[in-house]
Amino acid sequence: MTAPPDDCLARNDWICGDYLTTRRQILLDAVGQHVRLTVVSVALGLVIALPLALLARRLRWTAGPVLGATTVLYTIPSLAMFSLLLPVYGLSATLVVVGLALYSLTLLVRNILAGLDGVPAEAKEAARGMGYGPLRQLLTVELPLAVPAAMAGLRIATVSAVALTTVGAIVGYGGLGNLIYAGMNSFFKAQVLTASVLCVLLAVAFDVLLLGAERLLTPWRRPARSARPARGRRPLSASGRRG
Amino acid sequence: MSTLAAVWAWLTTAAHWSGENGVWHRLAEHAALTFACLALSALIALPVALTLGHLGRGGALAVNLANVGRAVPTFAVLVLLLLTPIGRHGPWPTVIALVLFAVPPLLTNAYVGMREVDPDVVRAARGMGMTGAQLVWRVEAPLALPLVLTGVRIAAVQLVATATLAALVGGGGLGRIITAGFNLASTPQVVAGAVVVAVFALLMEGLFELVQRLGPAQARGRDR
User: Fold this and answer.
1) Contact at CB, B76 and A192, closer than 8 angstroms
2) In angstroms, what separates the C-alpha of B1 from chain A's closest C-alpha?
3) I need a labelling partner for A205 at 20 to 30 A (CA). Which of A133, A157, B43, B103 fits?
4) Which residue of B10, B27, B75 is the best one to mutate when testing the A interface, meaning the one whose CB has the most A CBs within 10 A?
5) Is B63 a residue whose pLDDT tops 90?
6) Residue A229 pLDDT
7) Distance CA B124, CA A171 (A)
8) Is position B153 within any domain?
């Protein structure tokens, strides 16, 4: 006689070690797709947001329309956003990437603009006095000083993108969202919980990495408070260990 | 071009607007869900925020809640709730998920609003002999109103988006038009549903923007 298997998969437990070992490749593939979708979309958002922010700063009258348009995009629910792009991109990864990039625009444009506006007039005057042209001043003085504000926006945009990528499951490109969607249809509890937890961990990992990158990009902000050096160092070593 | 025409044709077909699966019924479901959960979330979040803000306690929790809320995928929470025993009780998974995602912006904004009240004003009110409760209702809460309303607006937009996703786990609302469109492989229906959802979300945003502008004079504070 054959007894029914009594492992956590058969019992449909929420937490199941066997799930992790037997579906290792599926999970890794899903995480890989999730990371690719997130990184490409935020990078695309950044590439579009930077010129928009520079335009809004150069021609002040464009600031209102640019910020208004990106806010409208941000208000549209994710499912509707992906659906609106369906006729253009079909059931593809590009659809998810473009949708997520459009979402990140609001946060990125707003924060880059705030960062550029926050550059002290003295720093700009000093650069001009040293004979810097407009381009050199922008690249070597203004943009570096705008990094902290821009990074704040980038971190929020990236964390949001990790969470929103799951909705891409509706077109079959949702990374871990695909596993959640499939797990819902088959009432596979371990799969849904594992994918959800991995999703949150992924968001935290991106946040920590970007925080580390920010510290690396703004070395002048680190020794400022020598009274408590440990505070500035910790995220750096954390990202260093990640290798 | 032909897609646009097909979407227009879908939207102008009277049959798509009436009945159980019609736009009007789904719109009513969506609006009811949004407003009921907004009221429920405000009932939970605002007393906590006003109390913590008044006492100046739990700041790290109140401020970080919004960040945590962003990192947790709405879709994952909806599915997780559906698979728990709560999932067998009709709309409850949707309602709980909606409230969970509407509470953080309400709580964080109201808390920050309470903490940003000028300490000199609070000291003056205390000097006049106001009790704690009087201080909250007559001084701190009115001065925090602009940020409280900002929180309400963010929560409302969030609720519309979450209610749309609820369709993926079998909930009602306008998202059902989109998911049904996907199941029928009907691009015009998917896009038409998305247009209705987007318009509804923008109207909600506009409505709460209007509430903020028409509100009492001191509510027209800085927007965040």
Assistant:
1) yes
2) 10
3) B103
4) B75
5) no
6) 44
7) 59
8) yes
Decide if B23 is inside a domain: no
Residue A60 CB neighbours (<10 A): 8
pLDDT of residue A85: 93
- The Cα B136–Cα B104 span in angstroms is 21
Window 142-181 of A: residues touching B by CB (8 A cutoff) are 156, 159-160, 162-164, 166-167, 169-170, 177, 180-181
Q: For residue B176, count other CB atoms closer than 10 A to its CB.
A: 22
Q: Which residues of chain A have pLDDT under 50?
A: 227-243
Q: Which of A86, A167, A200 sits opposite B187 (nearest CB)?
A: A86
Q: Which domains does chain A have, with CATH numbers?
A: 25-242 (1.10.3720.10)
What are the Cα distances from residue B204, in Å, to A191, B34, B75, B157, B224? 36, 10, 22, 7, 18
A75 in contact with B, Cβ within 8 Å: yes
Please report the pLDDT score of residue A1 as a whole number.
54
What is the nearest CA distance from B197 to chain A, expressed in angstroms?
Answer: 6
Which structure tokens are listed for B59? Answer: 């700041």
Record: contact A77-B181, CB cut-off 8 A: no
Number of domains forming the structure of chain B: 1
Residue of B176, B149, B186, B162 whose CA lies nearest to B79: B162
